[in-house]
Amino acid sequence: MATLYREYRPQNFSEILGQNHVKITLQNEIMSNKIAHAYLFCGPRAVGKTTLARVFSKAINCQKRKDGDFEPCNDCLACNSINLSNNFDIVEIDAASNTGVDNVRENIISYARLAPSQAKYKVFIIDEVHMLSISAFNALLKIMEEPPAFVIFILCTTEIHKVPSTIISRCQRFDFKRINVVDMIKKLDYIAKKENIKISKNVLEAIARKADGYMRDAESLFGQIISISGKEVSEEEASLILPNTNSTEIVKLLNLLNKKDAVNALSLVNQLVDNGVNIRNFLADTIEVLRKMMIAKINPSLADSLGLNLSEQQEKEISFLIQELELSRIVVFLEAFIKANQESKNALIAQLPTEIMIVTLASGSELKNYSEKNDNSFRTIRDSIKNSDNIKPLNDINEYVKPAKTKNLKKDITPESSKEEEEGEITSINHESILEKWNEFLISIKKYNHSLSFVLQNCQPQNLEKNKLCIAFKYKFHRDRVNDSQIKPIIEKTLKEIYGSALKIEAVLDENLDLTRNNSSEDKVENNIKNTSTSTDSSPQGEENKTTTGGNEMITNLLKTFGGEVIQ
Q1: Shared domain check, 546 and 486
Q2: In what side-by-side order are the strands of the sheet with 459-465?
Q3: Do 258 and 352 belong to one domain?
Q4: Which residue has the higher pLDDT, 251 or 93?
């Protein structure tokens, strides 16, 4: 079988994957017959720079192309000769092998003076142009400043910073991007159908993800797999070339780490190693998932715009985990996995750095280390505590931060305790009064479950009948979360605290729900609570008063971030 990336190289604009911002500009120039004399294609390798240069050369020299059209016919003499690489007017030069000024004089300057023999334009495609020497660039610059009307230069480079600004300024510059997973899967599926090869979508997706945005790499991997398996590719045969990836195991491990279950997490990692999974590949895949989660936690729309391409199955598996983990904890996990991946390269026992990471994360000590590394806030807080009159000095900051506990409740909230609550009668509560205190309710429920507060921000209270409050959600997994038997009692208990009456909730799904009006209300309420909590009685005059006030403010911020209370 011929090399796939050569056999299936695009022959017209429509076959080129991605790079629409480049293609549209060049197509418009061809249709309007306003061709520039020099182009600069820059970007990563294997994304179609040279291929697009060849297609553009064919289009401007095509003998059968009609006015107002931009696609080459691939049938005329000029197109066929370019496809076969024997057209004397299309000159491809590898600058890595022809770096000197003499090569530029002989192969470009002297040849550019001759009129084209077959085509309308004489096109010089210079690949890896950044490899030219300074003197060669200077020689090239002269001919590029005042080229003959029939000469066009197309310079291709992967290292634009090495190209002199004098050259760049005389070219139309186009920046190429890596190809996304979806487009690569479509191209691989097209090749598979042309070659009559049976292959699952999971394998095609694994090939595309392994190629990391480089189409030539994806086609090369596909060719290797076909060489092993023949006309029918199984996942087992594909795994001989591709590393095993299991997004389900990644999500399972992150869930265990979130629960600080070191025993089962260690067992899972060692089971993967025993099954032949490369631990470094597994860590790399986990880092990719965590990066996706981090960006999605900041803003869900960023996850798509930044080109993070996860499979549909992976998206479903991590969606719930994103709601469960706080952003600070995701960042801690991400840094811990990066460190473990780096240390596992030279480890005597491949999984040992991962095991150390699991034990560290499960112990909870990583949060302290993370804060101390990014700033000296803990040291500052210790100093503030020592200088404060109304707070007892502590030897360790971990003694200071303890799980938040509500002072006005006799016992912790559990499903059992909620069943014992008396159902009061609804007195003066209506839909308007529910909305008035809704933000206060969202803040209050953070005492019991931070992620639950995030879920409830994506809903709207609809109507109140007797003692049943109907809450509408836009997303099914949010509604299912609230309907959980362990979660609903917590919500109803907090509702009673805020509204003074026993309310039952009914969660419903409304896909047309408009959540835009929910955006900024909670921030305002949190600012009010912060201002109230930091207001203290007047302290003695002088420097001691400043120290105490500053210490209390930092302590309040710490408790607000991590949850906790001051132990007198």
Answers
A1: no
A2: 459-465, 468-473, 504-509
A3: yes
A4: 93
Task: Tell me if 374 is assigned to some domain.
Answer: no
Of 495, 425, 416, 415, give the one whose Cα is nearest residue 461.
495
Query: With 0-12 CB in 10 A as exposed, 13-18 as middle and 19+ as buried, what is 452?
Result: buried
Read off the CATH number of the domain in which 346 is found: 1.20.272.10
Mean pLDDT of the chain: 79
Question: Do 232 and 323 share a domain, yes or no?
Answer: no
Of the candidates 507, 499, 408, 491, the one whose C-alpha atom is nearest the C-alpha of residue 445 is 491
**For strand 151-157 and strand 38-42, is the pairing parallel, antiparallel, or unpaired?**
parallel
Angle at 296 between CA 441 and CA 457, to 5 degrees: 15
φ/ψ of residue 418, rounded to 5: -70, -25
Check pLDDT > 80 for residue 396: no
- Overall residue count recorded for the chain in this entry: 568
Please give the average per-residue pLDDT across 216-234, as a whole number. 90
**113 and 15 co-located in one domain:** yes
Total number of domains constituting the chain: 5
510 is in which domain, residue-wise? 415-525
Same structural domain, 61 and 78: yes
CATH number at residue 461: 3.30.300.180
Instruction: Give the end-to-end CA distance of the chain in Å, rounded to a whole number.
Output: 78
Nearest to 325 by CA among 365, 357, 298, 363: 298
Q: Is the pLDDT of residue 516 over 90?
A: no
Residue 189 in tokens: 């599926």
* Residues 17, 151 contacting (CB under 8 angstroms): no
Q: How is residue 456 written in tokens?
A: 């409830």
Residue 202 C-alpha from the chain's centroid: 20
Of the chain, the percentage scoring pLDDT greater than 70 comes to 76
Single pTM value for the model: 0.56
Q: Which amino acid is at 545?
A: N
